[in-house]
UniProtKB/TrEMBL annotation:
Organism placement in taxonomy: Bacteria, Pseudomonadati, Pseudomonadota, Betaproteobacteria, Burkholderiales
Family: Belongs to the glutamate--cysteine ligase type 1 family. Type 1 subfamily.
EC number: 6.3.2.2
UniProt-recorded name of the protein: Glutamate--cysteine ligase
Enzyme class (EC, first level): ligase
Superkingdom of origin organism: Bacteria
Record field: catalytic activity: L-cysteine + L-glutamate + ATP = gamma-L-glutamyl-L-cysteine + ADP + phosphate + H(+)
Chain ranges of the Glutamate--cysteine ligase domain: 14-383
Pathway: Sulfur metabolism; glutathione biosynthesis; glutathione from L-cysteine and L-glutamate: step 1/2
């Protein structure tokens, strides 16, 4: 029997459906961060420095690097309509291709053929204190997890609702307290629901069921061989999000299921202060050079590998937990989305419309407080889906009882339907309902999922992941090169790049003080009082 839509969701949808309040739905913001490796024409990692023509990786707001010099990250401004953000992401791609020469952008989440670990270049941000601490942090990641894992790419989806919408809900529901606190705890409630249902995103959009054999560098695994150079699991959706991708045993149980923002911040603050003997054995310096920021479980809060994070835009030099503590949650960042290798931007507008429905559902729906037992169940459901999501008859657990993935997924989509209807009413079209229908088709037929399409495409290339990924990357590169930026667009990006280079030079020229003291001051702001001042 299907679970009905909750009373809270019904009331909130009815409130927002009124002509007076419906415009609030269009005032939230969306943004995308897309990671992608620079590769050579043979599909191997390009290890040259970040192209100067793309600007400063430290100060260019749209084009930066993530872990490696070779791992580009394209960042869109936050926009009220995700379609606008995707248009801007497209423009960034087209500009980048004018400066990459024979290089290409890798079209997959799982890496290309990587050189020996020592030859993978760590991102460099210059000699300012801010730039150096970013570099040292990445040196620490190399020590702790190896460089190969840091070359995995993903899509981060940033999402917020209008602050006026949160204020409306607080007033209508007669909830006392500061508006900032209500908004923050409402985002935490969204995150609780996200953890309950995010396995569905992995089934619908996971696109990394295979990887190059050499990626594992001899690590033990339980994958099947598709060919000499390719490992996979026949029913996997996202090996990127499995224990073969982002994993860290030191972080096990680090942030238990949390019911308040304070609990989340306290857990992260403890982890940044908590010594970890294997990291202590590595030390913070080697031959006088910094190799990691500290020897604790986390160097900084962002080292915590999470599928979703509460976020607040930080000021220069500010720690993420400081920003959350002083100004509350501003938006959430969804971090579990694979790069879709069949989409030029790594994500489609149709997928983005569904994410908007899904996240609004998580935000408006009833979100009971969670427990360690439920947290374990959520983790297991996610883990099963990323490795076996397309297996016929796969059963998940809900409240201790078994339920098939397909039945639960279809039930969830039924509950999401009125949210999609409301968003379409606000727009005056049917784009959200259309995306919903596409997801129903995937649940009824696993062969229509991106992960199934990837397996099929790899088989068509002789079972070689590398051959499929290289062919796909070349096709997408040709598409972008066939649509170069207009003169006006090119001038905009060139000006942005030059401005960012000057900004970095000015930062370095005006730098004062000692880096050792800077890093000491930075570490000192993890005091146990950081989350207890409110």
């Amino acid at each position: 029997m299907n679970k009905p839509v909750s009373d809270l969701l019904k009331r909130r949808l009815a409130l927002l459906a009124s002509p007076a309040h419906r415009p609030l739905l269009s005032k939230g913001l969306r943004g995308i961060e897309r990671e992608t490796l620079r590769v050579n024409g043979d599909g191997r990692l390009n290890t040259t420095a970040h192209p100067r023509a793309l600007g400063s990786a430290l100060t260019n707001p749209l084009i930066t690097t993530d872990y490696s010099e070779s791992l580009l990250e394209f960042i869109t401004p936050a926009e009220p309509d995700i379609a606008i953000a995707l248009e801007k992401l497209d423009a960034i791609h087209r500009f980048a291709y004018t400066e990459l020469g024979e290089q290409m952008l890798w079209s997959q989440s799982m890496p290309c053929r990587l050189p020996p670990e020592a030859e993978i270049p760590i991102a460099w941000y210059g000699t300012s204190h801010i730039g150096m601490i970013k570099h040292v942090y990445r040196r620490g990641l190399a020590l702790r997890y190896g460089k190969s894992m840091q070359c995995i790419a993903g899509i981060h989806y940033n999402y917020s609702l209008s602050e006026d919408l949160w204020k409306l809900l607080q007033i209508e529901e007669k909830i006392s307290g500061e508006a900032q606190d209500f908004q923050s705890e409402s985002y935490v409630a969204l995150i609780r629901n996200f953890h309950r249902y995010s396995w569905l995103l992995m089934y619908l959009f996971g696109a990394s069921p295979a990887l190059s054999t050499e990626f594992l560098r001899g690590r033990p695994h339980q994958l099947d061989s598709m060919s000499d150079d390719t490992l996979y699991l026949p029913y996997a959706t996202s090996l990127r999000m499995s224990d073969l991708g982002y994993q860290n045993n030191a972080q096990d149980g680090l942030v238990p299921p949390y019911n308040t923002l304070l609990e989340y911040m306290s857990s992260l603050s403890r982890a940044v202060r908590q010594a970890y003997p294997p990291y202590e054995a590595l030390g913070t310096k080697k031959n006088g050079d910094w190799v990691q920021i500290n020897t604790n479980v986390l160097q900084i809060e962002n080292e915590f590998y999470a599928t979703i994070r509460p976020k607040r835009v930080i000021r220069s030099g500010e720690r993420p937990v400081e920003a959350l503590c002083s100004r509350g949650v501003q938006y959430i960042e969804v971090r579990c989305m694979d790069v879709d290798p069949f989409e030029p931007l790594g994500i489609s507008l149709e997928t983005s419309r569904f994410l908007d429905v899904f996240l609004l559902f998580c935000a408006l729906n009833d979100s009971p407080l969670t427990s360690n037992a439920e947290g374990h169940e959520n983790t297991e459901n996610f883990a099963l889906t990323v490795k076996q999501g397309r297996r016929p008859g796969l059963a998940l657990r809900r409240g201790g009882d078994e339920i098939s993935l397909q039945a639960w997924g279809l039930e969830l989509l039924e509950q999401l339907a009125p949210v999609a209807t409301l968003l379409d009413q606000q727009r005056g079209d049917s784009v959200h309902a259309n995306s919903m229908q596409r997801q129903i088709e995937k649940l009824r037929d696993p062969e229509q999922t991106p992960s199934a399409h990837v397996v099929e495409a790899i088989r068509a290339e002789g079972g070689s992941y590398a051959n499929f990924a290289l062919k796909q990357s070349k096709q997408l590169a040709d598409q972008f090169r066939a649509r170069p930026p207009s003169a006006q667009e090119a001038d905009y990006f060139h000006t942005l790049a030059q401005t960012s280079l000057l900004e970095q030079e000015n930062m370095e020229a005006s730098q004062i003080g000692d880096f050792d003291q800077f890093i000491s001051d930075y570490r000192s702001r993890t005091s146990s009082q950081i989350c207890c001042d409110k």
